[in-house]
Write a structure and sequence with these properties.
CATH superfamily of one domain: Cobalamin-binding domain
Largest sheet: 8 strands, mixed
Oligomer: single chain
Distance between the termini: 39 Å
Radius of gyration: 30 Å
Number of strands: 27
Strand content: 15-25%
Structural class: alpha/beta
Length: 870
């Protein structure tokens, strides 16, 4: 089915609450249709006809990954706050959805207005990870946008990229029109506004790109030529006339005053980091020599504690989330961490909201922080030693002593944590056998600390990855260790810990790391293997079960390129493919740090040295280091519904789950309802213990795809409110497809919800194309149905099925007037046949849930009106 330009836009603006007809059949056949629906709480949907620029924010991985990315949330808010800009989200489709789109000739579209990619003015890709590169091609191809910049005129969207992987843009130079290097909050707006002006004045894309190249932080590969050099296998690039020799990254120096989203989109399905996250700092003051992020996000900048707390509390009110986190590359270095955590936890405790912190340096896990966080529930703690010995930690400039790691572990275990996560690397520069043995010893000692305190074995999850010499780090000139050696090191660590069942080691696949290294240090020649590997089927290379290195080996071979050259050491005098991209850290400083590493010398962090002494960057004269601030905020809470009493009340709430809500799993439905209750101020009683949960019970779950017209849940609350109050408040806060219909206050003497259920009524739409087709087939196959209409055929099939009647079936009846078949099924503690199985057996249709609905439920004290004559 082909859709003309504008068709999706007009349809979605007219039918905001429905699943578009052209997607209905496709969504029925994929694993997680909720990924492709949109319509989430806080979604920003503008009329495409009323804006000057349409921008797609594209994340080249699954919805669950992309929706967890804070950068997209920030840009989504910043762009949509501009009255003339529409920004919508696009994610990489899983393979099943890709196949269905191709088979139906439906272009990949944005979630909000279902706009196909080729209709946007700009496509902005977030490049976080090199192993997502093959997904970029899938997205462009499905969006009907040519792969190469040279193939796209101004009739197509401008295709741009930003993010950490953009700091070596050369492997993707032929694909993207331009790269934005650095912070995007101000720069992306500047690019969009300038591009829309230029399109009015210029007809040639080259002229438009030449003007855009004048914007600070913008790199246009078209104006740079690759060339060979004597000192390296790698191709370097040089500017053509008029292009800047260096691209200086954009830095948001006013970071502490920059906008940050409060009203973030709340997904309808569970994502990886499903919580409110507030960025407390950008950059990292530590100088870990393996860490690319130190340079890419440099300089270190912070938000004030009042800003952080205000954003956090407002966002929790606007989203209904029950979990929150403080985000930073080095959360331990945030100077206001203790007081911020303490203030937040005093508020969170009242609302049963948990707080988690991103990975901690052991020095950051003080007993005060630990005590504050556990006031609601224990979230996981992650410590990042990276190396097993103090010697090797000096080499990588991870300034940690073993005693500090033990102390942090002891703090966690003493506060009741039973699980710790630890990050380590193998293959680090100068690594020796004793460093691996030291890693094993350190893990065992942490285990012993936990076992002594807890009086039982703690759970320790070890993440073990391979060192990659990344661009813009002091180690960028070094080689990556050989594959077989890295495998042997992982094998050694695993064997040493085998007798500890509660120590679980997850080793990152070495071949994935090899490909990551190739593309992170690559040049323009890699575009060929990328295109070839994609044609051979490369998709989702960051996913262990999907990664197929043989496809890449074949692709490199077809391009007469040896990928091992990209893993080799680099001459310090060579021009590197990324040298024209400036992070602000001087190359001379990186060389000094490399020399210190090889001499096992550590360096002070940016917080512990004066910029005038170090002078390792170009930014130091402009850096602000101190903020004299006290927390000045009076939290505003959602006013709870009803009057608080000493008693606990029971309520039964009836609701419908229709349209797009059919595509939610039961777990997703629970999350949607609980977050709606939180947004609405409906205080539900919670369980006790370290992981408090709302005390809500549900009737048996609907299968994904089946509508529910009279669903029911039961909850307890200390607040007394009326049905009218409840329905008015809650229906303002539920997501599309859900609606509450009735509320009943339940006496304590009445049975519990699922003990009181008697009958559940399901319907099947006999007018659906699938049922009609099945009945036509059966009528033709069986001669005695030759003179019967479809309704009579259905009746005969039902009678035949009921001849071997199951005791759990109260009755199956047809209603000619409504064109439906109704199933009345008894609720029994014993296993009863699933309604879908009955329909499947009667009509011979596989997985008919999308043709069905749960119409009604009956309790034990209710009469069941059944009209058997219809």
């Amino acid at each position: 089915m082909s859709l003309g330009k504008g068709a999706q836009v007009r349809y979605s603006m007219k039918n905001k609450m429905s699943v578009p007809v052209f997607l209905e059949e496709v969504l029925r056949q994929v694993e997680k249709p909720g990924r492709y629906l949109g319509g989430e709480w806080n979604e920003r949907r503008k009329n495409p006809l009323e804006v000057k620029a349409k921008v797609a924010l594209v994340f080249p991985d699954l919805y669950e990954i992309g929706m967890s990315y804070l950068g997209q949330k920030i840009l989504y808010s910043v762009l949509n706050d501009h009255p003339d800009i529409l920004a919508e989200r696009v994610f990489a489709p899983w393979k099943d959805f890709e196949q269905k789109l191709r088979g139906s000739n439906i272009p990949l579209y944005s979630l909000e207005n279902k706009i196909p990619l080729f209709q946007f003015d700009l496509l902005g890709f977030s490049l976080l990870y090199e192993l997502n590169y093959s997904n970029i091609l899938t997205i462009l191809d499905l969006g009907h946008v040519p792969f190469l910049s040279s193939q796209r005129t101004l009739e197509f969207p401008l295709v741009i990229a930003g993010g950490p992987a953009a700091f070596n843009p050369e492997p993707l130079a032929s694909i993207f029109d331009l790269f934005l290097v650095g912070d995007g909050e101000e720069a992306f707006l500047e690019i969009i506004e300038r591009f829309m002006e230029l399109k009015k004045d210029f007809k040639e894309k080259t002229e438009v790109l030449r003007e855009l190249a004048k914007i600070k932080g913008v790199y246009v590969p078209f104006f740079y030529l690759p060339y060979s050099q004597p000192k390296s296998f790698l191709l370097a690039v040089k500017p053509t006339e008029g292009a800047p020799a260096k691209i200086e990254k954009r830095v948001l120096f006013s970071f502490h005053r920059s906008p940050f989203p409060e009203k973030i989109v709340v997904p309808n399905i569970q994502i990886v980091f499903d919580r409110v996250a507030v960025e407390v700092a950008r950059g990292c003051p530590q100088k870990c020599r393996f860490c690319q992020a130190t340079s890419l996000y440099f300089p270190y900048r912070i938000k004030s504690p009042s800003f952080v707390i205000q954003k956090m509390l407002r966002s929790l009110r606007l989203t209904g989330y029950e979990d929150a986190s403080l985000s930073s590359l080095s959360i331990s270095d945030y100077p206001y961490l203790d007081q911020t955590v303490k203030f937040l936890m005093e508020e969170f405790r009242k609302e049963k909201i948990s707080l988690s912190l991103s990975s901690l340096r052991p020095k950051g896990l003080s007993s005060e922080v630990a005590k504050s966080i556990i006031k609601v529930r224990k979230t996981g703690f992650t410590l990042v030693p990276e190396a097993g010995t103090e010697r090797l930690r000096r080499v990588i400039n991870k300034n940690l002593k073993d005693e500090e790691i033990w102390e942090a572990s002891e703090n966690a275990f003493s506060q009741g944590w039973r699980m710790l996560k630890l990050y380590f690397m193998v293959g680090l520069p100068t690594e020796k056998d004793e460093d691996l043995e030291g890693m094993v010893t350190l893990i065992k000692e942490i285990f012993a600390v936990g076992e002594k305190i807890l009086k039982s074995p703690p759970t320790i999850n070890i993440s073990l990855s391979s060192f990659i010499p990344k661009p813009h780090t002091p180690f960028q000139w070094l080689s990556m260790e050989k594959e077989e050696i890295l495998w042997e090191k992982q094998k050694f660590i695993r064997s040493c810990l085998r007798r500890y069942p509660s120590i679980k080691l997850k080793g990152h696949p070495v071949k994935n790391s090899i490909l990551e290294c190739v593309f992170s240090r690559g040049d323009r020649r890699l575009a060929g293997p990328l295109l070839e590997a994609w044609k051979r089927g490369a998709r989702f290379d960051s996913w262990k079960d999907e990664f197929n290195f043989s496809l890449w080996e074949e692709a490199f071979e077809s391009e007469n390129l040896d990928y091992r050259n990209y893993l080799a050491p680099l001459d310090k005098e060579a021009i590197l493919p990324w040298d024209h991209i400036e992070t602000g850290i001087k190359k001379s400083h990186l060389l000094e740090e490399l020399d210190k590493a090889l001499h096992e010398e550590s360096s002070l962090s940016c917080l512990n040295t004066k910029c005038g002494v170090c002078q390792g960057c170009h930014f130091w004269p402009r850096l602000e280091r101190e903020f004299a601030e006290k927390i000045k905020i009076k939290p505003k809470r959602i006013s709870p519904l009803g009057d608080k009493r000493e008693d606990i009340f029971r309520y039964q709430a009836f609701y419908s789950k229709l349209h797009e809500a059919r595509f939610f799993s039961h777990l997703d439905l629970i999350n949607c309802i609980q977050r709606a209750f939180r947004r609405a101020g409906i205080r539900v009683s919670s369980s006790e213990g370290f992981h408090p949960k709302m005390l809500i019970s549900y009737i048996p779950a609907l299968p994904l795809g089946m509508e529910g017209k009279a669903e029911c849940l039961e909850f307890k609350s200390q607040y007394l409110f009326s049905e009218k109050q409840f329905l008015t408040r809650v229906n303002k806060h539920v997501t599309s497809g859900l609606k509450f219909l009735r509320l009943r206050k339940v006496e304590n003497s009445e049975p519990l919800l699922n003990e009181d259920l008697k009958i559940m009524v399901y319907s099947v739409n006999l007018e659906s194309q699938e049922i009609r087709g099945a009945l036509e087939t059966i009528r033709k196959e069986k001669n005695y149905f030759s003179s019967a209409d479809n309704f009579k055929v259905a009746q005969e099939l039902v009678d035949e099925f009921l001849s071997e009647r199951d005791e759990s079936i109260e009755g199956i009846f047809l209603d000619r007037e409504q064109g439906k078949l109704f199933l009345y099924l008894r609720c029994s503690p014993q296993k009863s046949p699933r309604p879908r199985d009955i329909v499947e057996k009667v009509f011979g249709i596989r997985n008919p849930v999308f043709l069905m609905a749960r119409e009604k439920i009956f309790f034990a004290n209710e009469e069941i009106p059944i009209d058997r004559e219809k």
